[in-house]
Amino acid sequence: MKKSSIYRREIVWLVFIFATAFSIQRLPAYSIEPGCKGALISSPDQKGFTKLPPWKRPLWQVHTTYGLYGVGGDLGDRFGMSSIVGLELQRQSPRHGWVWSLRGGHLFGAQVKEINLFGDIATTSGDIITANGIFEDYRLRQFGWFVEGRLGKIVFPMGPQGSGIRLDMGIGMLQHKIWIETPNNNSPQLSSEYKRGYDRLCDGLSLSQNLTYHYLSANRLINFQVGLDLIQAFTRERRSVRYDTGLPAHGERRDFLDGLKISWILPIYERSEKTGLYFD
Description:
The protein has 280 residues and is mainly beta.
């Protein structure tokens, strides 16, 4: 096993241990709306029931995200640096700081390390000849998607109310392949149907761990999240056969993405039943 993969697993386990340790703590409850100073109000009528004032309702958030990742495991043998851009919908509870979220995004990258991808249809130098007898100007890129559900918690309140150090863990699906672009579109051996035999399509279950700083400004103008994002995917190649070798390739893969993720947040606060929602 590669040393880089061992180091990544050590980081993942450290994040997991911290997440487990802090999740069992009962942290003080705070209002999630920036600038609110009061605590939650306990109702004397019902034991254990917490009544929220109208200005302290749960919070919805829409995140626009970008992440830059180094790749490892089997993914590192096929691709270089990768990026994920996407959206995330979150629901934050004001009572204990728990956050439920759903995120998805487009996985892409410019570097493909795979060699001898086309087998016998390419020349010894790796070129493809078109039907007109000239070289095809083909391009290879990384292409895929990522979606998951997550559960997180603000473990260290820091800054305006609703801000602090946050831990998240998620489970979802990751898919990736080699995108083969043929601008001239004049190579029968690389038609849309035949590209499927060379694209190395893979997908499978993914797990993630996130350690971030979550910031909601008191004036509601600057809201962001930034921090470490670790993704581990357990994938298999899904094409029935590779055209370059004529053999199936369905072995288990371990794909790792470790990087920095930033998000710009649009918060949606629930006021009261009469006023409904307002947007910042």
